[in-house]
Fold:
Amino acid sequence: MKVAVTSKGVTLDAEVDLRFGRAEQFIVFDTETEKYQVVSNSQNLNAAKGAGIQAAETLSRLDVECLISGHCGPNAYRTLNAAGIRIYTGASGKVSDMLKALEAGDLQPAGAADKAGHWV
Amino acid sequence: MTIAVASGKGGTGKTTIAANMAVSSPEPVKLIDCDVEEPNCHIFINPLIESRKNVGIPVPHADPEKCNACGECGRICQYNAIVALKTQPLVFPELCHGCGGCALVCPTGAITEVDRDIGVVEEGTRGDLLFSQGILNVGEAMAPPLIRAVRRNGQVKSNVIIDAPPGTSCPVVTTISGCDYVVLVTEPTPFGLNDLVLAVEMVRTMKIPFGVVINRSDIGDDAVKKYCRDQDIEILLELPHDRRVAEAYSKGELASESIDELKPLFEDLYVRITAKKN
Amino acid sequence: MREIVVISGKGGTGKTSILASFSVLAREAVIADCDVDAADMHLLLAPAIQRRETFTSGHEAIIQTDKCTGCGKCMELCRFNAVQEAASQNGHKVCTIDLFSCEGCGVCVEFCPEKAIDFPDSECGEWYVSETRAGPMVHARLGIASENSGKLVTTVRKEAQKIAAETGKEVILVDGPPGIGCPVIASLTGATFVLVVTEPTLSGEHDLQRVLTLSRKFGIQSAVCINKWDLNPGMADHIEEVAASLDALVAGRVCYDQNITKAQIEGKTAIEYACEAGNDIKNLWKNLEEMERSTK
Structure:
């Protein structure tokens, strides 16, 4: 399955980006092939509103099944849910650490958005 | 003739000028409060409200039976208000501007538009003064759609005086668009001048004739007057600071009715402005 | 990081004047002027601009008149009254778009039968990172008649947050816009404390109630301060009761003082000018700091 992790860099060693909607990029890791791709989120750095929504839509089109990030706002949460993507928040450290934690069953799925909406 | 009373800076006295001019005019007029985020005219006018109408923005509703998940709606939307996921579109009504694009572009006719309430428009009277105001629901982000709805109440035979919101961005532009004349109210301070310059740029770009009222004209310096002279801008009226005016205002009283010598000033202002119509 | 936002509901109550004094008193704060439509803080803090960035938001629709056949489809579809008819150079009827009314929705662009409408990014302002005698300041200038969606406000706040994190400053002081719409909402979300500056008038009370409803919606602790309180002491008392009934703390009062204008003319904040209002503001700041610190 495909797992997306918000990332500050372009390798598995990069730091997790705590934001979702305005993260710089996503590392989309395929657990079967163990290969990954870097998906840019730059269009959302400039989006007026709804960055989280658009980011969620991007992941949905890529057939991502899980998202790992620091935080997730209400609009993003709703979109990810509707797209059937499992959400894990509270991430920190390196992308690779989070992927290992997910595999080991150490991550808790988020029951709700954990950030107030930005309204922009 | 439609006269808007605007300003760059807040708190310069727009509502004071608009409301007092409306009640001092020698003929019946309509006063419209377009400061829908914080409408205050009603405090001074105390109108008898005769009608109240909800105003909504049309937002999309997708029929799951008809939707083929083509994604066109999400593609056209500039605001991320409708997102095309693999199954059904997801709508975020608070981001929707009501442009209708998604409904137009949907190939199966799955999207209809449903009104989402953003505020109310009220109409009323005070004697022979007609009154209308818009009140935006608290928590609503967008004022312009409600302002457009209130402005439509300005299609009347009498002259119309509009109390505009402060600033120079979209709510004000929506308010003054199509007006015949704009009164810019300012104060003789650095803040007042700074914001007046912005407001002048706005009305000049929109090509609407305008004049300036300097309120509390003796509290600061003469930089505003000098600016108006240099820019060939007509100063319609200078009202010196008057504690009685401030006190009347604080109690929600019309200065032109509490202080005898003020009524003719406001009446004269109205007459001079309306004489400009040609 | 603590973010104290000063708003007012009603314009002209004295937010900027009071916040400018706070920023001098605070000494270790980052200042964010989020009143991007009519920014005035710079007149008191004299910022030296270190960095200038263009602000882009949304798009604008522009009709290429040489391709336009004047069919009027755009006018028919536009929900914002942004399309007008005009005569082109050779006398044909063409359509033009009023950029002030255009909301950048793209409908006309999509449906123009001649594909005659361009849709470039809209450059609608600038923002700046500056140094002032009170500390680093982020401020902006929204273009005339631009959409004030709150995005520029968010941009200013984010940059202020970034600077605070980089320089280890704990407090961000935000000068908020008037009203209760998009830009105010953008200045409030995620703030840790709100101060509403109001005046002892019926208008002030009315607008205070609306703006406190907004900050309560966002679950942010608010405090109220009455500026020019002595213009109507009875009303000042009443407003403080109203504020308390809406779960807002009463932070203090500032007297009506013509010296604030004199100070402004000299480019000084009230506390840099010996005056009674300046003393009131110092006390207000002390109260505010205490209240804000004891808020969870």
Summary: DSSP finds ten helices and 13 strands in chain C. The radius of gyration of chain C is 22 Å.
